[in-house]
Amino acid sequence: MKNRDYLFPLFLALMGVLMPQSLLFAQSAETDIKIAVMAAPEMYREGATVIKVNEDGTTATLRKGTNQFVCLADDPKREGIGVSCYYNQLEPFMNRGRELRKEGKSNEDVFAIRESEVKSGKLEMPTNATMYVMSADSYNAETNQLMNAYTRWVVYIPFATEESTGLSLSPPGPGAPWLMDAGTHRAHIMITPPRK
Length: 196
Hints:
Blueprint: H1 7-18, H2 21-24, H3 29-36, H4 42-45, E1 49-53, E2 59-63, E3 69-72, E4 81-87, H5 91-102, H6 107-120, E5 129-136, E6 138-140, E7 145-147, E8 150-156, H7 162-165, E9 178-180, E10 188-191
Parallel strand pairs: 1-3
Antiparallel strand pairs: 1-2, 3-4, 4-5, 5-8, 6-7, 8-10, 9-10
Helix pairs in contact: 5-6
């Protein structure tokens, strides 16, 4: 047969079936770092630690940092981009959540276990700590830009209440801060700006 143009698309489809998922979604550590630190304020990006959660639930340090920020790399298997950076004193809390999810615990179980452990003193929570959460549609490697990026802020203040902060328990207006999970170990101020 002279025309074999149909074979190349067939070959690509077959490779998609046979190739391990980890290779299909592979992305260089350098790119992972570039994307992850975009969630942090610009002044903290260069010195932030960057970690990645592996398929088996374990973590790998892509870059050891020199400042107080930890950034979590994007999971390429999920649609779009999702990265976050947080104050390093939140790492025990964040890591405990990853451990429990690796064990197959539900979100409700993770919440209850961490609540109990924080109250007992087994798990340390800072009195206040900020996390920056960024999502985007895609990443342009040529321009090193995230497409349609959106950032929201979370300020953890464990066991804070409406009475102790004066914050409402639901958004009082577009982009206004409000208190979520009030009275629990995971009480936090949410700041969610309107999307463009």
